[in-house]
Specification:
The complex is a heterodimer of chains A (331) and B (296). Chain A has 331 residues and is α+β, with helices and mostly antiparallel strands. Helices cover 28% and strands 32% of the residues of chain A. In chain A, a hairpin with a 6-residue loop joins strand 15 and strand 16. Chain B has 13 helices and no strands. The longest helix of chain B is centred in the C-terminal third of the chain and has 39 residues. Chain B is globular, with a radius of gyration of 25 Å. Chain B starts with a helix and ends with a helix. The chains are: A alpha+beta (331), B mainly alpha (296).
Chain lengths: 331, 296
């Protein structure tokens, strides 16, 4: 089931949360909405779910307009950031909720519900916990129950709001790989919101980078990383150096740490930099250079072999040649 | 005892003081003792006095004072008033708390302030308001008299005055509870396909049930015990518009002390039952939470 958004705008008072967003989510893909807080990604997700009504624009599922359809009729699965599990119900009843509230004519029998919930609990690998209450579960377990509950109603699309945001780093790593595997199994059109670029690049088929209610770029993780469309995208994806540019040409230039050649001898295009600090731990040597007349330092990543070969000491000058430049007109 | 062991004792005493919250023992004893003494003087002694006075002329006189027709009529009226006022305020309290906690709208803070109004207005004034509106000289008095409807000095007036003074109890109990819970669970239920009523019955209500019961119990206690507002609108007609508190006053003014205290002991009993229920609910709620923390 594909999702088509066109011209979506949402205001909260004077604040424009979403500003004319067009977006097409392909059937079966896992799409990440990536952006800083306040970029409109969660509002967009809630608009898709029908929890928020857009001030302008349309939402369609597989070509069928759903803009005026109530959230309860959209058949979307929504996983809330803090899970929103029903505290007074057991895990079993949490997952069964969507099945129990169906109109009597469409309701499954108790035996069917039992079978279905059991299958889902097995899918999220928590089948032993059916009789527990949400408060007795860890964060990662709650997350998976929230997912099972959303899947129980056989949604046409799955929406996840910061699915790993409330978890600690180790659980987060595990869970996002697990989510990727799960998605490959069930192939449900899914959209998740995140502010963590690493998460988006690792898990998603395509990434939508958002800034101030607008879409900055849509593309595969490789595309947004290798060919960022704007200064915002390259900076938000992180780990990048802003290079000193020719004054007054109205452009900013970036280069990633691994996109430098470092030599001891000068060459025409090279920037002279003084080594502030260097360390070779693990597979990458990280070096920090100070440039004359440039406020921020330049971070460079080399192979440990190259680092040893150069044998630079702090204070010594080397010549840095950006192998790739990402140049953008300043806004 | 040598110096080092004395210091050791000091240190351990300081530690135990810290464990208890950092105050010396005598401060704690004084505060706890003071609070208990206060309660004893102002609550327990009067309660005991009510019971002893009620039974002064023996159990027979006690029972006789309760089954006497005017007393029975007062009991019936009080139960009737509570049976009308409490469900109405239950419905209003839930509706008001729901709208304050789950929606954003203009005049929300005004609504919250208005809910508190009965707490800040003297009950006598509350009663007078209804006399001014519905009384013979009031705004609607003439019209009502023309249609042969009696509000003041009749049951409807007592119901209105009681509703007025008991408005805040359920709403005040629910608003902070519902606000703390937010709207995420309701949204989750909606996305899962639940309708408005299903969401309310299956999610919202179970989440606030103890707070709701607590509010209802307090509301009921006040509805049965209200004196000031009811006194103004009732007219004190024996066997017709006398509630229990008013009946106590009449008996007392007629120097029927044993009977007055016998009826009063019924109200005191209501207070004790209320306290017991309140305690039971608090225990229940308290037990449900920490137990889960421990098991985790």
């Amino acid at each position: 089931m594909s999702i088509e958004l066109s011209g979506i705008t949402k205001r909260f008072g004077a604040f424009v949360a979403v500003d004319g967003v067009d977006l097409h989510v392909e059937t079966g893909e896992l799409l990440a909405l990536l952006g800083p807080s306040g970029s409109g990604k969660t509002s967009l997700l809630r608009i898709i779910a029908g929890l928020e009504a857009p001030d302008a624009g349309t939402v369609a599922f597989h070509g069928e307009d759903a803009t005026d359809r109530h959230a309860r009729e959209r058949r979307v699965g929504f996983v809330f950031q803090h899970y929103a599990l029903f505290g007074h119900l057991t895990i079993f009843e949490n997952v069964a909720f969507g099945l129990r509230v169906r109109p009597r004519a469409h309701r499954l029998t108790d035996a069917q519900i039992r079978r279905k919930v059991t299958t889902l609990l097995e899918l999220v690998q928590l089948d032993g916990l059916a009789d527990r209450h949400p408060r007795e579960l860890s964060g990662g377990q709650r997350q998976r129950i929230a997912l099972a509950r959303a899947l129980a109603v056989e949604p046409r699309v799955l929406l996840l709001d910061e699915p790993f945001g409330a978890l600690d780093a180790r659980v987060r790593q595990e869970l996002r790989r697990w989510l990727r595997r799960l998605h490959d199994e069930v192939r449900l059109t899914s959209v998740f919101v995140t502010h963590d670029q690493e998460e988006a690049l690792e898990v998603a088929d395509r990434v939508v980078v958002m800034n101030r209610g607008r879409v900055e770029q849509v593309g595969t993780p490789e595309q947004v990383y290798e060919r960022p469309a704007s200064a915002f995208v390259v900076e938000f994806l992180g780990g990048v150096n802003r290079l000193p540019g020719a004054a007054g040409d109205g452009r900013v230039t970036f280069a990633r740490p691994h996109e430098f050649a470092v030599e001891r001898t000068p060459s025409p295009a090279a920037l002279p930099g003084r080594l502030v600090h260097g360390a070779a731990v693990g597979p990458v040597a990280r070096l920090e250079f100070a440039l004359d007349g440039h406020a921020s330092t330049i971070n460079v990543a080399l192979t440990p072999e190259r680092y040893r070969q150069l044998a630079l000491r702090p204070g010594e000058v080397a010549y840095l040649t950006p192998l790739r430049r990402h140049a953008f007109a300043t806004a | 005892m040598d110096a080092s062991s004395t210091r050791g004792a000091d240190v351990s005493r300081a530690h135990s003081a810290l464990r208890q919250g950092g105050e010396p023992a005598w401060v704690r004893a004084l505060l706890i003792g003071g609070a208990l003494a206060f309660l004893a003087v102002f609550l327990f002694v009067p309660l005991a006095f009510v019971l002893t006075e009620a039974l002064k002329k023996g159990l027979g006189a006690f029972v006789a004072a309760l089954v006497e027709p005017d007393a029975m009529s007062a009991i019936r009226l009080t139960l009737l008033i509570a049976a009308i006022a409490v469900p109405l305020n239950l419905a209003f309290g839930v509706a008001a708390a729901w709208s304050v906690a789950k929606f954003e709208f203009r005049g929300k803070s005004l609504l919250v302030t208005l809910i508190d109004l009965p707490f800040s207005v003297s009950p006598v004034i509350a009663g007078l308001i209804y006399v001014l509106i519905f009384g013979l000289q009031g705004w609607l008095g003439g019209w009502l008299a023309g249609h042969d409807v009696r509000v003041i000095f009749a049951v409807p007036g007592i119901v209105l005055a009681t509703i007025f003074v008991t408005v805040p109890f359920v709403a005040r109990e629910l608003i902070p509870l519902m606000q703390a819970q937010g709207t995420e669970q309701e949204e989750a239920a909606t996305v899962l396909g639940a309708g408005g009523w299903q969401t309310f019955r299956r999610i919202t209500l179970p989440n606030v049930k103890w707070g709701l019961l607590y509010g209802v119990i307090l509301c009921n206690a006040r509805a049965m015990g209200e004196f000031g507002a009811v006194s103004v609108v009732s007219g004190h007609i024996r066997g017709a518009t006398n509630t229990l508190p008013l009946h106590v006053e009449i008996l007392y003014n007629e120097y029927q002390f044993a009977a007055a205290f016998a009826v009063a002991s019924l109200l005191a009993l209501l207070a004790l039952v209320t306290l017991a229920l309140k305690l039971a609910i608090e225990r229940r709620v308290g037990r449900e939470r920490p137990l889960a923390e421990i098991r985790r």
